[in-house]
């Protein structure tokens, strides 16, 4: 059997969720959209079920899978509904949609709901992707509460640069939240993604929304003390399936991207872009072989990639290979491929996921 697989450590997932809870001291929605960032939504939800305050997903399809699996916690639909016809199911299953644009308000006006919604109202505090501007936000808030269509409202906004140090943007967004909600009385608030949970204690509010941190990957491109406490959940692993001796000055793989600079031992790994390993990973991308760091050499193929074993004489056919996980941060691998760990995880494909509790 092909040795490529993703080991998913569910106790690390619980550790990371508890870290989000203890750092924020408030309720935390486990963001399990996009199949829990490639980690398997149902398995991750089951592992958190006994302690989680709620889940967040991007669409009703994902929420209904969680309900069908028996999860009774609140489920926030981060993008609300896409068609008004979803509203009846949203009521039936008590899903909490985010209302984020005028079309949603019109749908609600025309809807005949079987019961009022528990809804979240999106404030555009400066990211300019979704939500209502601070100027009109209080009016819409009051209109919704008066409409009888919502049972209660939570205020939600999203930071665009909470993962960066000292841009001033997050403070501006916090100020926009304060001014937009100042006259609304007691308002439950949700502001923070993982970066907010880890680095913006003054923004924690009533509900936080950790995503990437649950999976043990830091949202920051620099060392950060809270993020240092995260435990990687996914180990992407395979084995060396062949070894070749290659002379100096010889090309390796498609396009001859890499030329050996010395007589080299090249190891072939059963892992490729069809598995989700990034095709754009550059020569020099770190790879662990038997726990030791070495480098990717040559372009990544669909099913295989090549690593330099010249300095690892004890490793060879059958050696254990880790592409990311404990001991090799997915964010570091991602930076060698011009992307972020989020995308590496979401792109995971074909490899079986093996769960450890
Ligand atoms: C995906 C998402 C999150 C989680 O973001 P992370 O950076 O993965 O923590 C939080 N809030 C919203 C609105 C999202 O869409």
TrEMBL record:
SUPFAM superfamilies: Alanine racemase C-terminal domain-like (SSF50621), PLP-binding barrel (SSF51419)
Domain Alanine racemase C-terminal: 233-356
Domain of life: Bacteria
Pathway it works in: Amino-acid biosynthesis; D-alanine biosynthesis; D-alanine from L-alanine: step 1/1
Cofactor (UniProt): pyridoxal 5'-phosphate
GO molecular function, one term: alanine racemase activity
Keyword Isomerase in annotation: yes
EC number: 5.1.1.1
Binding site for substrate: 129, 302
Keywords: Isomerase, Pyridoxal phosphate
Reactions accelerated catalytically: L-alanine = D-alanine
Function field: Catalyzes the interconversion of L-alanine and D-alanine. May also act on other amino acids.
NCBIfam families: alr (TIGR00492)
Protein name, UniProt field: Alanine racemase
Gene for this chain: alr
């Amino acid at each position: 059997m092909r040795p490529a697989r993703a080991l998913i450590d569910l106790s690390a997932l619980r550790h990371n969720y508890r870290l989000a809870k203890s750092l924020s001291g408030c309720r935390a929605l486990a963001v399990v959209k996009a199949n829990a960032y490639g980690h398997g939504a149902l398995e991750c939800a089951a592992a958190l079920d006994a302690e989680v305050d709620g889940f967040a997903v991007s669409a009703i399809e994902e929420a209904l899978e969680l309900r069908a699996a028996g999860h009774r916690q609140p489920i926030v639909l981060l993008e609300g509904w896409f068609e008004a016809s979803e509203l009846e199911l949203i009521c039936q299953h008590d899903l909490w949609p985010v209302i984020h644009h005028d079309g949603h308000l019109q749908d609600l006006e025309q809807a005949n709901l079987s019961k009022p919604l528990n809804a979240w109202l999106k404030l555009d505090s400066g990211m300019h992707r979704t939500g209502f501007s601070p100027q009109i936000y209080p009016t819409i808030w009051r209109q919704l509460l008066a409409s009888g269509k919502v049972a209660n409202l939570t205020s939600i906004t999203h930071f665009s640069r909470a993962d960066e140090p000292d841009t001033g943007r997050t403070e501006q967004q916090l100020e926009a939240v304060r001014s937009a909600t100042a006259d609304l009385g007691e308002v439950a608030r949700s502001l923070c993604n993982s970066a907010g949970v880890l680095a913006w204690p003054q923004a924690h509010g009533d509900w936080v929304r950790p995503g990437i941190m649950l999976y043990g990957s830091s949202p920051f491109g620099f060392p950060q003390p809270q993020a240092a406490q995260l435990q990687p959940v996914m180990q992407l692993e395979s084995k060396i399936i062949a070894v070749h001796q290659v002379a100096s000055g010889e090309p390796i793989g498609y396009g001859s991207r890499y030329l050996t600079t010395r007589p080299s031992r090249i190891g072939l790994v059963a892992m490729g872009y069809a598995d989700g390993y990034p095709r754009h990973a550059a020569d020099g991308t770190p790879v662990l072989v038997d726990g030791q760091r070495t480098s990717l050499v040559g372009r990544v193929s669909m099913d295989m990639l090549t690593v330099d074993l010249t300095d690892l004489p004890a490793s060879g056919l059958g050696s254990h290979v880790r592409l990311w996980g404990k001991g090799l941060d997915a964010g570091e691998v991602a930076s060698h491929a011009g992307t972020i760990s989020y995308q590496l995880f979401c792109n995971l494909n074909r490899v079986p996921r093996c769960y450890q509790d």
